[in-house]
Design goal:
The protein has 359 residues and is an alpha/beta fold. The chain is built from 17 helices and 8 strands. It has a single domain, classed as Alpha-Beta Barrel (TIM Barrel).
Length: 359
């Protein structure tokens, strides 16, 4: 068994954090699904910018689209929606065999709508209809406007991947919006058993920023926390997840077939060479979760990763690490807000470059 496939028995699913036409048509994606047990695929503007700008398989279609009276965004969508559909079709058997738990493929709404709830809802519904696959997921950011949009999309019966979550405020806001969306759907007499959502919590960007601050403090206590905060945060966030989705409030929804909104670990490629290159996978394996992993980290785990359930361990130590961080004067919630703004900017820039390609 592949070391990656060995993660599944612990209740976690591994999704690929990459997508391109070449990956699909070469058979490489199908191989990953079959041999490594990859159970889903995520994309974002940065991934598609890299794919469209470097994969020759897009050139002919793009040239034809440029002959048509379309906006740059319409041309972009005309290029990528077929890729999402083809990937959904590749993972359709996984979706069916898992009774709708696995096999999801994510496409993000325009980052320009991050602070526009109505615009996000409209864009998400349009993309959902265009893809027209039950195992698609529409990605929306965990901004205040995104929270509003997310709740409405769940009420509308659309699968959603909420992205750019960096602190416990983001986690709690999104998980509770999911429950409210399901409750509204039940009140309207609509079924809830086919809806799936994930909440994407980012890791390596957190440690990269916080470790710089810890290094500037320079004390032994500060240095001891380096490379530990993102994992500590995720372990605490997982306790919030369990309290909600294994508690009384969700029990009534579960009785009607509702699925919990799984936490998804994102930004799991290690950016500091001093750390183990598989640590954001190995340390966070646990039930009812997803880890979306870039190619290099998949390769590393396939070579030397160790699969065991660590997510529900060392909880008290994780709480203590976050308390120690606060006592050093570093506000995790403020860090999370800063990182969300920076993440949105990166997606904005990537999307702008995409539209320049298709203009």
């Amino acid at each position: 068994m592949s070391r990656i496939a060995a993660i599944k028995p612990f209740g976690q699913r591994i999704w690929l954090d990459n997508l391109s036409r070449g990956l699909i048509k070469s058979g490489e994606l199908a191989k990953l699904l079959q041999e490594d047990g990859i159970a889903g695929v995520t994309s974002n503007p940065a991934i598609f910018y890299k794919s469209i700008s470097s994969d020759a398989l897009y050139a002919g279609d793009l040239a034809e689209l440029k002959k048509q009276n379309l906006s740059a965004e319409q041309r972009y969508e005309a290029l990528v929606v077929p890729d999402i559909q083809a990937t959904c079709d590749l993972t359709a058997s996984i979706y069916r065999d898992s009774n709708g738990l696995d096999g999801y493929v994510s496409l993000e709404v325009s980052p320009a709508l991050a602070n526009d709830a109505a615009g996000t809802i409209e864009n998400a519904k349009r993309l959902w209809a265009a893809i027209n696959r039950p195992n698609a997921m529409i990605k929306v950011p965990a901004t205040p406007a995104g929270v509003i949009a997310f709740e409405e999309l769940i009420t509308s019966g659309i699968n959603v991947n909420v992205t750019l979550m960096f602190n416990l405020v983001h986690v709690d806001d999104i998980l509770n919006a999911y429950v409210r969306g399901l409750e509204a759907r039940v009140a309207a007499g609509q079924p809830i058993d086919k809806i799936q959502a994930v909440a994407s919590v980012f890791l390596s960007r957190v440690d990269t920023l916080i470790d710089k601050k810890l290094d500037a403090i320079g004390s032994a206590e500060a240095k001891a926390l380096q490379g530990k905060i993102a994992i500590a945060f995720v372990k605490v966030a997982y306790q919030h997840y369990k309290k909600l989705f294994h508690g009384d409030r969700f029990a009534a929804l579960k009785a009607k077939g509702a699925n919990p909104q799984r936490l998804l670990w994102a930004s799991t490629g290690t950016k500091n060479a001093a750390f183990r290159d598989t640590m954001y996978v190995e340390e966070l394996i646990g039930p009812e979760t997803v880890n979306t992993v870039p190619d290099a980290t998949l390769d590393a785990f396939r070579d030397h990763g160790v699969a065991e359930n660590k997510l529900d361990t060392q909880i008290e130590e994780s709480v203590q690490a976050l308390v120690a961080l606060r006592n050093l004067g570093i506000n995790y919630n403020l860090i999370g807000e800063q990182l969300q703004v920076e993440g949105l900017k990166l997606f904005d820039e990537a999307f702008d470059k995409l539209l320049q390609l298709t203009a």
